[in-house]
Amino acid sequence: MLFSSSFALPSGGKFTHETSGTISKPNNNTLNISGNKQNSIIQWGGGFSIGKGESVNFGNSNFKGQQNYLNIAHGTSKSTIDGILNASGNNVFLINPNGVIITKNGTINANRFVASTSSMSDNDMKAFADLKSFDDGLSFSPVFKPSKGGNVVNMGGEINAASVVLQGNIVVSNAYADYDKNLGEHSKQISANEITLQGNEVYVDVSSINGNKLGKLNIKGSNGNNFKGSMYLNASGYYYNPNSFKVFDKYTNTNSNFNVYKYVGIGSDVDWWHFAKGWNERTWDFMLNASEYRLTNDIDFKGNQGKGVEGKDWQNYANYCIDGLGCTNMIPSISGVIFEDFDGQGYTLSNINMEIFLDENYRNIGVFGGFEASSTIKNINVDYEGGGIKIYFNAEDVGMINIGGLAGMIANAKILH
């Protein structure tokens, strides 16, 4: 049920702590929340979720200035944002000790958005109601309680805000990872100047964050060895959001247990598909942002399971097809060279079989196209497993072609064992 579209709009809402306003429902898919004062506290007896195709709007056009909205979700259910939360230039806080989920369909627009599972006392709510100005809402946050509680998970939703805070027992910011469907979904990110992720465990897929918009990423966790966390990026996410590699240079963290894997990881044929496609399309963002690629698993390219170029039970490395993505040439940089480092980390690329009909796009043929002097290739194993490279020439002159088992061309690059 977690990702179904059956979630109802927030219900049982009541303004408390001497705040006031209106909650209206113009249709079955829309809820409008309008506070009369600078600060509003709304307690939701029926919980706070937004289903797919639904929207919740915060703001009062008759109020001069921006507003702070604190939402307390009661009950035993998580808050799931599967639709649109629109607060424009206002600050919105969502508190649910059971957890908060932002799905791939979720969209949040606010000046500041805070999702927390740390419960708030009556005095905490009074302090919020008494905030002197809108600017006070820019620094107000629930006090993190390291006791085990609900989790806050972004599963690839879109968040547009100046500031974002996600706070829970386990905090995850993931990119939309269903690469077999709807390629347009991959562009969704958290676009914010400052992002704070705080929990007992924090995991960040940096492709979920807009590196061009980000000024600072704060990683905060419990003290000592109890904290776990990591920051990582795979080739599939990097292909769709190459600006995300910049996130690695914009984070702060004080806990040594937080692991930062500052490279583009390649752990499957789907990752390799995106890695190769990115280098063959040769867009500047893709080629220049990342500084290193690493294998994170063995990859079997399924090249010895059939016969002939028309065989359906095997994969042609030079025309590799994945359901939902289509087909692409798996030779990275067939018409040029790779000028970044590649570390195989001891993993193996295996079961490779190519049947190539030459045209003007081919210059370098191998598992890789080519590497140039500024790059280093190391710790990589290649096993064709009885496969190989079969080339078909046509009558036209296709020019000089470089062919090699590892790479078609290595121009003074370093190769290390």
Automatic annotation (TrEMBL):
Residues 6-124 form the Filamentous haemagglutinin FhaB/tRNA nuclease CdiA-like TPS domain. InterPro entries: FhaB/CdiA-like_TPS, Pectin_lyas_fold, Pectin_lyase_fold/virulence. Signal peptide: none annotated. This is Filamentous haemagglutinin FhaB/tRNA nuclease CdiA-like TPS domain-containing protein. It comes from Campylobacter ornithocola.
